[in-house]
Amino acid sequence: MFLFLGALWLHIGMLALARKTYTGNSMRMLRSSAAYLIVLMSHLLIALEFAAGFKWSHSLGLGGFVHVPGEDWMDLFYFSLVNITTLGLGDIYPTGHLRALAGIESLTGFLLISCTAQFIFETLHKPLRLRIDGAPL
């Protein structure tokens, strides 16, 4: 529950920052690139948050992972990225109660990717407003 809420609040905040960064017509390509990088960073931070959740849950004895060479941070981050994008390759999979956490992460990822898709749609379809003399506002 805390991971979901933390991910949601982080993503909403990062989307607000991305919208603020995108606003304005000067240097539109640079602004849109910066905004999209902010959104990408949001997804990466959320995957890192869930990886930390998997590590902590594993330390509590709530489950583990199958086919993981070392269960180090990179393995957990990789699993989290694959899971939050709902890709689900299956080369690493959780056991025990970590399966429920993985399901919550997948649902969270689906929700956040939908929010990101809406943001990208809005920014790509936002018309360029011009002054009467034809210069950008």
TrEMBL record:
- An example of a Pfam family matching this protein is Ion_trans_2
**Domain of life of the organism encoding this protein:** Bacteria
Q: Does the keyword Transmembrane apply?
A: yes
Q: Which residues cross the membrane?
A: 34-54, 75-94, 100-121
Gene3D superfamilies listed in its UniProt record: 1.10.287.70
Span of domain Potassium channel? 68-124
Swiss-Prot/TrEMBL keywords: Membrane, Transmembrane, Transmembrane helix
Which protein, by its recorded name, is this? Potassium channel domain-containing protein
Q: Which source organism does the UniProt entry give? A: Novosphingobium indicum
